[in-house]
Amino acid sequence: MTDIIDGNAVATDVREGLGDAIETLSEAGHTPGLATVLMSDDPASETYVSMKQRDCEEVGIESHHVELDPDAPADELYDTVEDLNADDAIHGILVQMPVPDHVDTRRVLRSVRPEKDVDGFHPENVGRLVAGNERFKPCTPHGIQKLFDAYDVETEGAEAVVVGRSDIVGKPMANLFIQKAPFGNATTTVCHSRTKDLAAHTREADIVVAAAGVPGFVTGDMLEEGATVVDVGINRVDADTEKGYELVGDVEYESAEEVAGAITPVPGGVGPMTRAMLLWNTVKAASEQTGVDVTLP
Ligand code: NAD
């Protein structure tokens, strides 16, 4: 029997588990606050940001939204981030990526105060993660660790293969796998677009995390019997639906499910966890900035 890993259920647990912490902070006069900054008219980015705002409202986090014209000078974005850095009611800042070409992405990532960098993308926070002394774990790999916890997936001593080496998923996931820490201690291989024989690696893996952004390219014949398969991909493919597309993962679900011991579906697997862990990081940020002690789920 294959375990279908229910990200919606685990995300609901995380969100409910944050309730007491949010209440404690709010009663102390420090309702956690997350600022989202959007400088794009890309519909997907707009959707992501509005989902994040809605998530905040649902759990009692104050959400502040700043929208900038994608053609505005880059300084407007840099100045916005500075203002948010200085605002005591804002504990987390999220600049929705990608930003327009005339904006220096690295400068934006560097300009968010590390204590408010709830995405975990500031170089200081990346360095701390690599050093095993993390402040914020990036939301997607952090959420995947929560799924491992909920479904008793053993990472210690496991062969883990991460497909993809992006700064937001692949690299931090691999870094968490190699930490001498819970949900780490895995023997870790990172595959990417230049990997010569991907299947030779994935077939040896106890855990495969697919984060390449290529629809359905990890198939059942590339997996070891009983492997845990985590599908991070969210890809729009043309389909005969009302919207004219559907969302599919990087894993070909039907064939993979026949072989896997556990698998995350798309949607309803990793996606809801990424959203939940943004709330988690925001509550952690609020607690650390205000000195109000809370217990995190
Ligand atoms: P990215 O485009 O930044 O990186 C993709 C990586 O995959 C690259 O490192 C590349 O080397 C590798 N790659 C590309 N083609 C490959 C191939 N054929 N074989 C092996 N490796 C290959 O992507 P990203 O931002 O990490 O996102 C990856 C996917 O995950 C996308 O579909 C994205 O939408 C999705 N995503 C989902 C969540 C979530 O919460 N579920 C969060 C972030 C990203």
TrEMBL record:
An MF annotation (GO) of this entry: methenyltetrahydrofolate cyclohydrolase activity
InterPro entries (UniProt xref): Aminoacid_DH-like_N_sf, NAD(P)-bd_dom_sf, THF_DH/CycHdrlase, THF_DH/CycHdrlase_cat_dom, THF_DH/CycHdrlase_NAD-bd_dom
Pfam families reported in the protein's UniProt record: THF_DHG_CYH (PF00763), THF_DHG_CYH_C (PF02882)
Signal sequence bounds: none
Coiled coil stretches, renumbered: none
Residue ranges constituting the Tetrahydrofolate dehydrogenase/cyclohydrolase catalytic domain according to the UniProt record: 5-119
Keyword Manganese (UniProt): no
Pathway(s) per entry: One-carbon metabolism; tetrahydrofolate interconversion
Reaction(s) catalysed (UniProt annotation): (6R)-5,10-methenyltetrahydrofolate + H2O = (6R)-10-formyltetrahydrofolate + H(+); (6R)-5,10-methylene-5,6,7,8-tetrahydrofolate + NADP(+) = (6R)-5,10-methenyltetrahydrofolate + NADPH
GO terms for biological process, alphabetical: L-histidine biosynthetic process; methionine biosynthetic process; purine nucleotide biosynthetic process; tetrahydrofolate interconversion
Self-association and partners: Homodimer.
Function: Catalyzes the oxidation of 5,10-methylenetetrahydrofolate to 5,10-methenyltetrahydrofolate and then the hydrolysis of 5,10-methenyltetrahydrofolate to 10-formyltetrahydrofolate.
Protein name stated in the entry: Bifunctional protein FolD
Name of the gene this protein is made from: folD
